[in-house]
């Protein structure tokens, strides 16, 4: 009990120090939905990765502390060239984003020279710069459909999201990349079945990064932003949520009359969880770790984001659901 009280006091003290530093540095703290509960508590803005980067454009802050992973901070830096973008933990990377390299992408482009490259937002700035148009998990189907004169599309790097897009756009050939999210693929069909047996009236909502067997067993397939919106507007009271466990904090806070169940306790992204209150405090105090993108790469990467926004009918600076 004493240890719990001490831990609580420590966190509250850190939150106060962070609030003071944030004001001094004219900073904004933006936090992805998969972050630790206490990190979500200090957020000025929470949401999906690209939505956070877009929302940051609207702030008058001079410093952006991005509590997420590296590719997200890169997107924020691309869209906010006049702001200092900080990632509290420089080792917070994304295994999915690391599953594709420029050399291998260029080799595939050489095999299919007429096929445009649609890159998932979960990619590095360099991969975005080598692609034709970007997409998020919420708009991937519409982005691929928008390429009306193209019968073949290279989709990178998430094969599960690509398979989901293929199921919705059967008139196109989707060249898939063998990438995947190490967290979402931990959900198996048997996990869904077991929890469903315990809660037969629960609605199953899954992220499209899950494998196709799980998606086939789901009632709703959507991004984290889509999940938040759907559940808020739903009359149902029980939900089985197949995505990273960090989303539960917001879901429970925003829907106190509803119940949520994880299909497996393994739904934890270790990279997302690297960010702590202590690292956020360190980031603000020493303005570390700066994330920047070389100008030539940033310029080309921004084009892929702008093309996506144009297709989605979203002006630059507006928020869109992403990861």
DSSP E strands, number: 12
CATH-defined fold name of the largest domain: Rossmann fold
Number of domains: 3
Gyration radius (Cα, Å) is 20 Å
In N-to-C order, the SSE pattern is HEHEHEHEHEHEHEHEHEHEHEHEHH
- What's the level 1 CATH class of the largest domain? Alpha Beta
What's the story with the biggest beta sheet?
Answer: 4 strands, parallel
Number of helices: 14
Question: What shape does the CA trace take?
Answer: globular
The CATH architecture category of the largest domain equals 3-Layer(aba) Sandwich
* Helix coverage percent: 40-55%
| Class by SSE composition | alpha/beta
* Strand residues, percent: 5-15%
- Within CATH, the superfamily of the largest domain carries the name NadA-like
Report the end-to-end length measured between terminal Cα atoms: 38 Å
Q: In what order do the strands lie side by side in the largest sheet?
A: 2-1-3-4
Mean pLDDT: 93
Runs with pLDDT <50, length 5+? 315-322
Query: From the structure provided, what is the oligomeric state, counting identical versus distinct chains?
Result: single chain
């Amino acid at each position: 009990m004493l240890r719990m009280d001490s831990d609580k006091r420590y966190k509250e003290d850190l939150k106060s120090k962070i609030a003071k530093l944030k004001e001094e540095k004219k900073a904004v703290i933006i936090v992805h939905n998969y972050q630790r509960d206490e990190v979500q508590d200090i957020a000025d803005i929470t949401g999906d990765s690209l939505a956070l980067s877009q929302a940051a454009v609207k702030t008058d802050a001079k410093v952006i502390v991005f509590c997420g992973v590296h590719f997200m901070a890169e997107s924020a830096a691309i869209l906010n060239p006049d702001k200092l973008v900080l990632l509290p933990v420089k080792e917070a990377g994304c295994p999915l984003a690391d599953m594709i390299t420029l050399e291998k992408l260029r080799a595939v482009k050489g095999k299919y020279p007429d096929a445009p490259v649609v890159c998932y937002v979960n990619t590095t700035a360099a991969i975005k710069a080598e692609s034709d148009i970007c997409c998020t998990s919420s708009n991937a189907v519409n982005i691929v459909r928008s390429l009306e004169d193209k019968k073949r599309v290279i989709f990178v790097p998430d094969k599960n999201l690509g398979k989901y897009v293929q199921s919705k756009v059967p008139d196109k050939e989707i060249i898939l990349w063998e990438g995947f999210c190490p967290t979402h693929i931990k959900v198996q069909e048997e996990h869904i079945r077991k929890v469903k047996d315990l809660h037969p009236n629960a609605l199953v909502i899954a992220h499209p990064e899950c494998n196709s067997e799980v998606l086939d067993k789901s009632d709703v397939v959507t991004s984290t932003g889509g999940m938040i919106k759907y559940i808020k507007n739903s009359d149902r009271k029980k939900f089985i949520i197949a995505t990273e466990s960090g989303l539960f904090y917001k879901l429970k806070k925003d829907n106190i009359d509803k119940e949520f169940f994880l299909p497996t306790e393994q739904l934890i992204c270790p990279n997302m969880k690297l960010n702590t209150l202590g690292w956020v405090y360190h980031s603000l105090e020493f303005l570390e770790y700066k994330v920047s993108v070389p100008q030539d790469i940033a310029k080309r990467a921004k084009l892929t984001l702008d093309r996506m926004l144009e297709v989605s009918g979203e002006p630059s600076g507006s928020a869109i659901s992403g990861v």
